[in-house]
Recover the amino acids of this structure.
């Protein structure tokens, strides 16, 4: 093992992780702007997109469940769900496990919208250069998961 393969001491780790946070913020903002400049998928805001992706991937969920997964306030998620429901992309259904917290389910129209959004995103992501390897992407995901886990205790509501 050489020096760059050894775990960093906390005093060195902190500033390096800050660099990663700075890059993530810039990447997120630029990526969203680029997607918004592409061929429009009518009316899909970033928040509604996040709700539709969750429902597409995991099936029906409650608003509080979505808020926990996305690390967003329940109130914000509720507004995004209301928008998706108003557009016919999602619907509230009874929740046998909790009478006051409906399950939100994606509709067929919502499936069509999120499929189009994801196809556009995947086309854009295919343009990423750098000859990235599977090992590099796995390492990136591992680092980001560790960073996210550090803040698991943060209350979003």
């Amino acid at each position: 093992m050489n020096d760059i393969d050894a775990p960093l001491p906390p005093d060195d780790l902190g500033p390096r992780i800050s660099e990663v946070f700075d890059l993530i913020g810039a990447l997120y903002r630029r990526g969203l702007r680029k997607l918004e400049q592409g061929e429009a998928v009518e009316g899909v805001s970033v928040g509604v997109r996040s709700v539709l992706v969750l429902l597409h991937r995991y099936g029906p969920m409650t608003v509080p469940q979505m808020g926990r997964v996305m690390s967003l306030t329940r109130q914000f998620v509720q507004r995004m769900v209301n928008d998706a429901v108003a557009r016919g992309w999602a619907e509230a259904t009874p929740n046998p496990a909790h009478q006051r917290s409906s399950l939100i389910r994606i509709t067929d129209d919502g499936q069509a919208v999120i499929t189009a959004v994801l196809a556009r995103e995947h086309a854009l992501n295919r343009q990423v250069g750098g000859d990235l390897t599977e090992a590099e992407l796995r390492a990136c995901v591992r680092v980001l998961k560790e960073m996210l886990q550090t803040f698991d205790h943060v209350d979003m509501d």
In short: Helices lie at 10-37, 46-58, 63-70, 74-86, 108-125, 134-150.
